[in-house]
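Job type: complex structure
Entries:
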Amino acid sequence: MNRTVARKFGSNVNRLRIPWRQPFSNDAVPISSTSNAANLEKESEDLRYDIAIVGGGMVGLALACSLATRPLTKHLTVAIIDSNLALRRKHFIEKEVHPDPRVSTVTPATISFFKDIGAWQYVEQHRHAYFDKMQVWDYTGLGYTKYNARDANKEVLGCVVENKVLLSSLLSRLQDTDFQKKIYPSRLTSMSILPNSSSLEVDSTLSVTASFTHGRLAKLELEDGNSLYAKLVVGADGGKSRVRELAGFRTTGWNYSQNAIICTVEHAVENHCAWQRFLPAGPIALLPIGDKFSNIVWTMNPKESSEFKSMSEDDFLKALNYALDHGYGPHPTSSLLGNADIFSWLKGVVSRSANDCFEIPPKVVKLASERMAFPLSLRHANDYASNRVVLIGDAAHTVHPLAGQGVNLGFGDASTLSSVISEGIAVGTDIGEILLLKKYEADRKPTNVMMMAVLDGFQKAYTVDFGPLNILRAAAFHGAHYISPLKKSIISYASGEQRLPLLS
Ligand SMILES: Cc1cc2nc3c(=O)[nH]c(=O)nc-3n(C[C@H](O)[C@H](O)[C@H](O)COP(=O)(O)OP(=O)(O)OC[C@H]3O[C@@H](n4cnc5c(N)ncnc54)[C@H](O)[C@@H]3O)c2cc1C
């Protein structure tokens, strides 16, 4: 670091050490109506933060944890705004209850990120299920693919974890650091940002009101009447992001006219494999979640979903086992397009799991949770960053859950954004500066857009029942099943490594 950068860095870190009242308190600071001007100014100083994270979901909390663990960002003052009551409790996981139906399949890249930010050790204290095998097939009976972690020299393909376990692990990790965060149990209602007055030097001695007037702070107003100020506002408030709307970010996207029914089910034996079958109306996935439980994500049209949600448990189980077995079409065999021999011209590239036979998933014997239905859509913000505002997670992009990638992309955003903020601090840049935030956007947009395109392509290719297309799909299954480099690329890409399938 040269001397100028070191001097800038030193003064920047000092500037970030602002007076702090009630650290780790979960109660928002009320605005007093005292007439004393000095007191008023002092109180508004207490409402000044470096970063306001709107949305304390999995992605918002992951960003906070990542900031808490980096040497240059761990001194930042951070406000987290979310009305979710779970954030007010330290431990909200009851061990003995059945797994919650809301789960995420986290990739090896996410597991590494959680280890880096010190949160994975908390996940491991609760129920979670690593899996190293996956079988994908479709209802036509023309093909199937088996993935094994060993095809890509990996130990696991992923891990299925309840969302509440991920959330509580991130929260516990955050509470075990001395990060200066404060949780506001409310919701953002409005936001004002004035243009930067470029003539003004960035000066820490400016009062909150003067900093706001000169465009150096954003002002946030909350549903409970509180307001606060921050240099940077992070929209981590999900698919219907209020931050995105208030900042005027436009989006591109569409609804899929599909709902996903999710629930927890029980088997007579333990399940260690992730299963996915493409049916005429969409995919059904059976994911291990530990003990004898699995999670179901079943995509179908909205009319069917309301029928399947309300039918009796017995009828639902029958329909489920039918859909996971021989319903809608026969079991696939390798004889229709041949076997590994047809790829014999590709010497030495036949995958190690190419001879693994098709298997029928373990039978479901009991419904172990309520059934929930979620409408599915694709949405992408045209920009992720503007002056003092940035979007992460579902606020920036919502994808189809067919490959379990949504929150993994969000964790990638959180990791990159905290790294970009850290780089900005190192050179003394204002962390709400658009040029800095655009670096984050430039890094994440291509990765997110590519994944969205791949998932949308899959969604479309597998919801059309048309003879020639069925044969092409079968050929794709066979290629992915037998050809080792292709299989390795697919596994690496789905694991969160940023290489594009087919190109590595
Ligand atoms: C059926 C289904 C299955 C899925 N399976 C997977 C999977 O296996 N793997 C995977 O990677 N992804 C999966 N996803 C996607 C994943 O659930 C989302 O990507 C993830 O929840 C996004 O996290 P987030 O923190 O960005 O947003 P959210 O989880 O939506 O959290 C947003 C938070 O913001 C808060 N909030 C909202 N508005 C405001 C406001 N105005 N003020 C303050 N706070 C506010 C909310 O209370 C919430 O806590 C699945 C999605 C669905 C629908």
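Summary: The chain is about 35% helix and 25% strand. The chain has two domains: 3-94+168-252+378-450, 103-163+256-375+461-494.
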